[in-house]
Amino acid sequence: MITLYGIGDIFEGGHGETKDLRVQWALEEVGLGYRFHALDQTAGDLDSEEYARISPFHQVPVIDDDGFVLAESAAILLYVAEKAGRLIPTDVQGRTLVMQWCFAAVSTVAPTLQCIETIEIFDHEKTATKVLHETRKLAERWFGGVERRLEGREWIACPEFTVADIAMASVLRTIRKTDLMDPFPRIKSYYDRCYARPAWRRTLTLAAERLGMTVDQLR
Question: How many C-beta atoms surround the C-beta of residue 42 within 10 A?
């Protein structure tokens, strides 16, 4: 059985925002059996030597599938899809398209949105106003590409929902409380479609139970 290492408790502001949720979402989508191993960041679990042996950068998520240990959320999403034979096409070109859009989510779109999020959280003196402005412009450039990709499409990589959609939707979720998606109607509709899926609702319910919060607090 797969063991998913994720967050059981975290410092203020991080509840419901961690990358273990995207892996749990994929597991709920494909129906693979798994157990959740909750880590307490506030108690230093992520910094322990024991955890360092399976997580090179002291991060979540990590999975252990009967001795096969894997870190990095996009890699885990692809592994789950391949193992289950779901959420990824069987032909090489279709599978490569899914990989492309997983990589696009985590290596192109995500770093820019994470920069915006970091500035807005920590720039209390508003000294990074120009940096924030330029970073938002870069995010709008990436969103323009995603918006074009979604023209006439329901999902980002293939005609059917895949792990690339979990990756992209999870990245977009980091800026859900801002106005960044407002000028991009296709992205907004895509975001809503992704998060209307029953497997995500199950994931959010499980996270709320684990964190001792309500689902509404994590939305």
Answer: 13
